[in-house]
Design brief:
6-stranded parallel sheet, alpha/beta, globular
């Protein structure tokens, strides 16, 4: 199948620049969202860096970006401010760093690279459920990299049309997959709460505790 009809005719004009920090394991996945994102944006506004460790010597451009006061990193947590509030006072043009990988991979990259603690940390305050239904998410509100980027750009550019345009190829991808035998993947949270989780429960106490928190609606 071809997704070309679902991409914008011309790359979207945005002032915000995205840096996608991609875990190497994500690069080999067939059904990933970053290629869809890069096809929607100009090359100079969406840059993808692949790796686990990012030092200042090896990545001087990224280091300069992280040290710039106009840079944000999209990573949820207790220290993160809501992007909607930050966007009201943040200067333009700006740069947003997004980590692409599973949640455990993203956590590893964020905490083991001191560069990523330099930008202001932000998160999305949204109750939107992911439309990336052909991959399992930890919770009902976890979003794919493309969805996070689409929402973040719409907020920073003050243009909801950007979100709709970027989500269109993802919706088409999922639709094609479902038409050809793929199954809808409910979140792990949904499966656990409804007694549908059919895999063996982990023996690792830390992982087991995380699953208990999912069932009890505790943010992790």
């Amino acid at each position: 199948v071809c997704l070309c009809p679902f991409f914008p005719v011309h790359p979207l004009k945005v002032s915000t620049c995205l840096y996608i920090i991609q875990h190497p394991a994500e690069e080999s996945r067939v059904l990933r969202t970053v290629p869809l994102l890069t096809a929607c944006l100009p090359g100079d506004k969406c840059k993808v860096l692949i790796g686990r460790r990012f030092g200042e010597d090896r990545y001087p451009e990224l280091a300069a970006v992280c040290q710039n006061s106009n840079t944000l990193i999209l990573y949820p947590g207790a220290e993160a401010a809501n992007l909607e509030e930050v966007a009201l006072i943040f200067p333009s043009p700006s740069t947003i760093i997004i980590i692409d990988g599973t949640w455990s991979q993203a956590k590893d990259i964020f905490y083991k690279n001191s560069l990523f603690r330099l930008p202001k940390q932000v998160q999305l305050k949204t109750s939107i459920s992911s439309q990336y239904v052909i991959r399992t998410q930890p919770t009902n509100t976890c979003l794919s990299t493309l969805e996070c980027a689409a929402i973040a750009l719409a907020i920073m550019e003050k243009n909801d049309g950007i979100q709709e345009t970027i989500l269109r190829p993802l919706q088409a991808l999922c639709s094609f997959q479902l038409q050809h035998g793929a199954q809808i993947h409910h979140s792990k949270e949904h499966l656990l709460k409804n007694g549908l989780y059919d895999k063996p429960m982990p023996k690792n106490k830390r992982k087991l505790r995380r699953m208990e928190l999912l069932v009890n609606n505790v943010k992790i």
